[in-house]
Design a protein that fits this description.
Helix content is 32%, strand content 19%. It is α/β, with parallel strands linked by helices. It folds into two domains: 56 residues, no CATH class; 273 residues, Alpha/Beta hydrolase fold, catalytic domain (Rossmann fold, 3-Layer(aba) Sandwich). Strands 1-2-4-3-5-6-7-10-9-8 form a ten-stranded mixed β-sheet, sandwiched between helices. Helix 1 runs antiparallel to helix 2. The longest helix has 19 residues.
Length: 377
């Protein structure tokens, strides 16, 4: 194992501490890693390995300084074959009767593994397909367990695919939503996710009018990118605790947008082409709730907007405010602001990380919204 490998291993340990113990312990681990990865005396130009470590150090510094997970639960610790850390590999959503299998997709932008859930109710008739994009430090198994989307697949008759970000592409397995190369149609990670979607459509009977994409945090930001860059492929999207497409172009602007800074306020207005449902906790200190407002802003100009409807907290469940919006061209959106909630999937199962079981059921509401909005030309 070389110096760069040693540093990446230390960084993986730091992210695990960030999720399971907190920022203080993670920061201490990062400092130890940085102390052990100094440039050799007299060196004037970094080697490729040292350059990679510089990029990794920049990400870790930014993450530990600005991002603190909320409502994080203890992860699964099984190992997988994806190279991802955290909750991994084995099929942990064993309560559902369908098949949950691992596959690999490759194209000009690289290679990603993905998990596919085929419900037991699948008999060859065309079914809707939901693409689920996990958040940072998560993977497909963790996200499936936390969102319970495989349970909904059985109930509603859905195929569900979970692309897995690789640790080689991002040390904390975040989708690179803040990089211009990954925000473009047919490029980078956007092309990989679209390619995985099309591969599943080729291999199974999928209703092409009912293909949807959803995600949490970085995955939510990527879901909005997919909706904007491939509107002919996805009929609607769900964004939970995420950010709008184009709000960042690098790590500094990403951190500014996450904090609700001006970076997310300078984009030109774009007429929405596809429906969108957004969930965000109003006590989220990781991704500022103003990003939810920015996500639905294009639906709030010239169309019909109903007055927000507030549902108070009751019986241990969080209260929330729900608003229906319709753009001037008739494309619809919903915004759910969950009161007192942090950076976590509302109504999720504590078997997965970054879940808030006391919230409204975001997965169920997303599926309802999706099925009411098939693809229209």
């Amino acid at each position: 194992m070389n110096m760069n490998d040693d540093f990446l291993k230390s960084m993986k340990d730091a992210f695990e501490l960030l999720r399971t113990q907190g920022p203080k312990e993670a920061t201490a681990a990062v400092q130890r890693a940085l102390a052990g990865d100094k440039k050799p005396a007299g060196a004037t130009h970094p080697s490729p390995g040292q350059a990679a470590s510089e990029g990794a150090r920049e990400w870790v510094r930014a993450w530990t300084q600005h991002v603190q997970p909320q409502h994080s639960t203890a992860p699964y610790t099984s190992s997988d074959d994806t190279g991802n850390t955290g909750n991994a590999g084995q099929t942990i959503d064993a309560e559902t009767p369908g098949a949950f299998s691992t596959h690999t997709f490759s194209n000009h932008a690289g290679q990603r593994r993905y998990k596919l859930y085929v419900p037991a109710v699948y008999t060859g008739e065309p079914l809707p397909l939901v693409v689920m994009l996990h958040g940072c430090t998560q993977n497909a198994d963790d996200f499936a367990a936390g969102t319970r989307m495989n349970e909904l697949a059985e109930r509603h008759g859905l195929l569900v695919v979970y692309p897995n970000q690789s640790q080689a592409a991002n040390p904390s397995t975040c989708w690179n939503w803040f990089k211009p190369a990954d925000q473009q149609r047919d490029q980078g990670e956007a092309s990989l996710i679209a390619g995985i979607t099309r591969e599943v459509m080729d291999r199974y009977r999928v209703d092409p009018a009912r293909v949807y994409v959803a995600g949490l945090s970085a995955g939510g930001a990527m879901a909005d990118i997919m909706l904007k860059t491939s509107p002919e492929l996805y009929a609607a999207a769900g964004v939970h605790s995420g950010l709008p497409c184009g709000c960042a172009k690098d790590l500094p602007s990403a951190l500014a947008a996450m904090k609700g800074g001006k970076a997310s306020r300078t984009r030109a207005a774009v007429t929405p082409q596809r429906p969108l449902i957004v969930f965000h906790g109003d006590a989220d200190t990781t991704v500022h709730p103003s990003n939810a407002i920015e996500l639905v802003a294009p639906f709030n100009s010239g169309g019909a907007t109903l007055a927000p409807h507030a549902t108070p907290a009751a019986s241990g469940r969080r209260g929330y405010t729900r608003q229906h919006l319709s753009a001037a061209n008739g494309v619809e959106a919903e915004l759910w602001s969950i009161h007192g909630a942090g950076h976590a999937w509302a109504g999720g199962n504590s078997r997965g990380s970054y879940t808030d079981p006391s919230g409204p059921d975001a997965a169920e509401e997303m599926v309802r919204f999706f099925l009411a909005h098939p693809l229209r030309s």
